[in-house]
Design a protein that fits this description.
Structural class: mainly alpha
Number of helices: 34
Shape: rod-shaped
Number of domains: 4
Radius of gyration: 55 Å
Distance between the termini: 186 Å
Helix content: 55-70%
Largest sheet: 2 strands, antiparallel
Strand order of the largest sheet: 1-2
């Protein structure tokens, strides 16, 4: 090839061949030859630049082709399967600094939606600006960090777009989401906080908060002696404990940790007692009351329904829920800021109270309140349909209940235990269906009231009398019902026992049972005896008064005169009416009950005593009639020492 020297005179002759060369190069297929062609054009361009007084048009033409090949190569490197950072940097350094900065900025925007290529531009820009010590370095450094974390967090299902477009709040949210993964994440969080300027101590507290709030242990239901019991998987508890201690070990500010635990207590699932215990251990909290109560709750199986307060607290803690969790069926809530009585009242009954008494001193619960609420709870459960029971129960429907209640009352302590026991029994009386169970309860209540009135300073004036009136009423009503005499007539006379007894002995069934066979034959003598004993009525005196009244003949049969001679026709008249005299039949009925010999001697004294002038012949005759009715002939002869003919 013939060489010649380029001078200003032969520029016109050279310009055309150069343009032709450039056009042919542009038309070449540059498959796998980009870099070689770029080097050729680069050599051409720099050689022409070295020529003095070179035509500017020629340089511009060469430079355009040079820039075209440079950008083409650069794009291929960016789009290649394997990114060649060194080649990319070489391409950039073939440009001027201003052109390189302008081009990086432009292509960075154009590839913003293409995260793979945008990452390559970011890395390239960071390396270029680092080497050139350009102020734009920080921007690309930040982007490089974002891409680093986008790649690192992809395994936690965090998308590139999410991390690249995130602000501080979004990054915190991403961090919190990662915290739910079951692995050691502390080194990752330390690096993350360092790169994005977060406080690692705050991050660790957030990590601690996240794992305790998202703890979802496996619940095991076992059957022990016919009773189902719930147990939380021990491995889950141990794993949580280990993780919490591991995190707490990196928290330098122990005061901040303690304050955080105090704050977070109200945000924890209050059925997860294990979390509370773990957190108390972390800050070395020595609150014995809380610890013992939590241990008690761990071994306690719930029996009662949840309270409205429990529902409200759960919905406040978990706004998305519409019902309590499954674990609430077995566990009571641990809500230390709420008065304990409001939570445990439904739990207290005669099956559970002893468990609560065991922990009463620690929880500062008064035993008499535990026992009272237990009795109320049991009575409410046993007699929940009391309002539907209107018929008087003649026999006990639950004999053991009162015994269990008395045993519970015996666990009440203190100088006023009798008073509280009386009050509890009074509640039992008022909430027990009418009948034998209620009578047994009021009887026991009256016994306690009598003792309480003597020993307790709290016993109110008039309370004993109030209980006594109820005791007398219920007991007498039960006596009437048991003896088949519980009708309105007799029940209305309970407040006037003397009149009641008189009315009972005028019951129409007494004479009827002597005249004919009847189904209704109530044992009035027994009823009267019980009522008299209840109201301290002198039964002997009462019966004597009634006998003296009934032995008097009706005035319509008293037709005798003062003359003794007129007595005999009257006797004949009396004899004809004895058989129809209800009073004599009632007298016979009274005297058949109790000491028959005593009753016979009373009648003998009226009928045969010659010195007894207090009784008229009519009365004496009626007495003898009754006597013969209640005593057989042989017995009568023995008592009066006369034979049957003499008596007649």
């Amino acid at each position: 090839m013939m060489m010649f020297k380029i001078t200003k005179k032969n520029w016109p002759n050279i310009e055309e061949p150069i343009k032709d060369l450039l056009n042919k190069i542009m038309e070449l297929k540059m498959e796998h030859s980009d870099y070689i062609l770029l080097q050729i054009i680069k050599t051409l361009y720099f050689n022409f630049c070295a020529i003095p007084n070179i035509n500017d048009n020629i340089l511009i033409e060469i430079k355009l082709v040079y820039f075209h090949f440079l950008i083409t190569l650069f794009k291929k490197v960016i789009n290649s399967r394997m990114f060649d950072l060194q080649l990319s940097l070489s391409c950039l350094f073939m440009l001027s600094d201003s052109e390189a900065c302008k081009w990086i900025s432009s292509i960075c925007k154009s590839f913003q939606s293409d995260y793979t290529r945008h990452l390559r531009i970011t890395v390239l820009g960071y390396e270029y600006f680092y080497l050139t010590k350009n102020q734009t370095l920080q921007t690309f450094k930040n982007n490089k960090i974002l891409y680093y974390w986008a790649q690192k967090l992809s395994k936690y299902l965090v998308s590139y777009k999410e991390i690249l477009t995130s602000d501080s709040a979004a990054k915190r949210e991403i961090l919190q989401r990662i915290m739910s993964y079951d692995e050691d994440l502390i080194p990752l969080f330390q690096e993350f906080c360092f790169d994005f300027g977060f406080d690692i101590q705050d991050c660790l507290l957030l990590y601690l908060q996240t794992i305790i709030k998202t703890w979802n242990p496996k619940l095991n239901i076992s059957n022990y002696n016919g009773k189902k019991e719930l147990h939380i998987n021990e491995d889950d508890i141990n794993q949580l404990n280990k993780k919490c201690n591991s995190i707490a070990a990196y928290i330098v500010d122990k005061v901040a940790l303690k304050n955080w635990v105090t704050m977070i207590f109200s945000q924890i699932n209050f059925y997860h007692y294990e979390i509370f215990i773990i957190l108390m251990d972390l800050i070395e909290d020595k609150n014995i009351e809380h610890r013992n109560y939590l241990c008690f709750l761990q071994n306690y199986i719930r029996t009662g329904p949840p309270t409205q307060i429990e529902y409200d607290e759960w919905m406040h803690l978990n706004p998305g829920y519409t019902s309590l969790p499954f674990i609430a069926e077995w566990r009571l809530p641990f809500l230390p800021k709420i008065e304990l009585w409001k939570l445990i009242t439904p739990e207290l009954n005669l099956k559970t109270y002893e468990k609560w008494l065991d922990i009463a001193a620690i929880l500062k619960l008064q035993p008499h309140i535990i026992c009272t609420l237990a009795i109320k709870g049991e009575v409410a459960h046993i007699w929940k349909n009391k309002h539907k029971i209107a018929k008087w129960s003649l026999s006990s429907k639950n004999k053991s209940l009162l015994n269990h209640i008395k045993k519970c009352i015996e666990r009440m302590t203190g100088p006023d235990a009798l008073y509280y026991g009386t009050a509890a029994l009074y509640y039992v009386v008022n909430h027990t269906p009418p009948g034998a169970d209620q009578v047994a309860a009021i009887e026991e209540c009256y016994k306690y009231a009598q003792l309480s009135a003597q020993k307790s300073m709290m016993f109110e004036e008039g309370m004993l009398e109030k209980i006594k009136i109820k005791y007398l009423r219920f007991t007498s009503e039960h006596i009437l019902h048991v003896h088949g005499l519980g009708n309105k007539k007799y029940l209305s006379l309970i407040g006037n026992p003397n009149k009641l007894v008189h009315e009972l002995y005028t019951d129409e069934s007494i004479p009827q049972r002597y005249r004919c066979v009847i189904d209704h034959r109530p044992d009035i003598n027994s009823a009267v005896s019980s009522i008299s004993q209840l109201f301290s009525i002198n039964l002997i005196k009462l019966r004597i008064e009634l006998l003296q009244e009934w032995l008097q003949p009706d005035t319509k049969y008293m037709k005798f005169n003062q003359s003794i001679t007129e007595t005999f026709p009257v006797m004949t008249n009396l004899e004809s009416n004895l058989n129809c005299d209800d009073k004599l039949l009632r007298a016979c009925y009274i005297l058949e009950y109790g000491d028959l010999e005593l009753s016979a001697n009373f009648l003998i004294n009226i009928g045969f005593s010659e010195k007894n002038e207090d009784y008229s012949p009519e009365v004496r005759y009626r007495a003898l009639y009754v006597l013969q009715s209640i005593v057989d002939t042989a017995k009568l002869e023995d008592l009066i020492k006369r034979d049957d003919q003499t008596i007649k």
